[in-house]
Amino acid sequence: MSSLVQSIQEFMQVHDYVSRETNVSVQVLASKLAQYVDLVQEANQQFNLTGAKTGQVFFEDHVVDSLLAAQVFLKDSSLASKNSLWIDVGSGAGLPGLVWALLKPKQKMLLVESKQKKAAFLQKTANFLGLNQLSVSAQRFEELSLKLEGQSLFVKPEIKVVSRGTASPEKLIKLVRASLLPWKDWYVFSSSKTHEDFLRLAASKSGFAFSVRLLDLGKNPFSQKPILLSHLLRDLA
Known about the structure:
It is a single chain. This protein has 237 residues and is of the alpha/beta class. The protein has helices at residues 3-14, 17-22, 26-44, 55-74, 97-103, 116-128, 169-178, 192-204; strands at residues 84-89, 109-112, 134-137, 147-148, 151-152, 158-163, 185-190, 210-219, 226-234. A seven-stranded mixed β-sheet has the order 3-2-1-6-7-9-8, sandwiched between helices. The protein has a two-stranded antiparallel ribbon with strand order 4-5.
């Protein structure tokens, strides 16, 4: 057993909500996650996917953040719905969307990544890992419609969005205002300062009605950094 697989298994044994909510064994999940990490490191030698120099660092600094934040994903009551769609905006190396797709491979997940090389990597990795319900769109979020490659995704979709390091709060609000997708919930990997900016923007009511709350999902046991999500709730009325 590699040290990386062992680290993943030890993490998931401590944070047992992952295997409990997914009904997948720790061993199977650890193997899939290790394969994903190896693919990221291999591609990172060709073009810039991550600043992490080793697979262990990538797992500890990035994958673990995504696994801890997966609490909001795994507890989403809409996962049982055939019309449920999660969108990861600015997915980059697949964080958190591809990691979350490994936890719930039957859930429809769309990774939006405008950079062609990264989008191609995401699709290749999804295919390799057998993630048949995961799609990749190589365009900007504001250009996205409910059609992908000529096929209608959903008639009445229930869309939830997540993003990690995509843009500043001001730029992100401009981005979502330009979107025609009827999303209701948007989860942003955040910080105390970032969340304060979202609160200010929500209070300003500058043409886009939403409320925001802060979710504290604990600390990354390796970096000791808090895992905070700003949960934007859109007023669709």
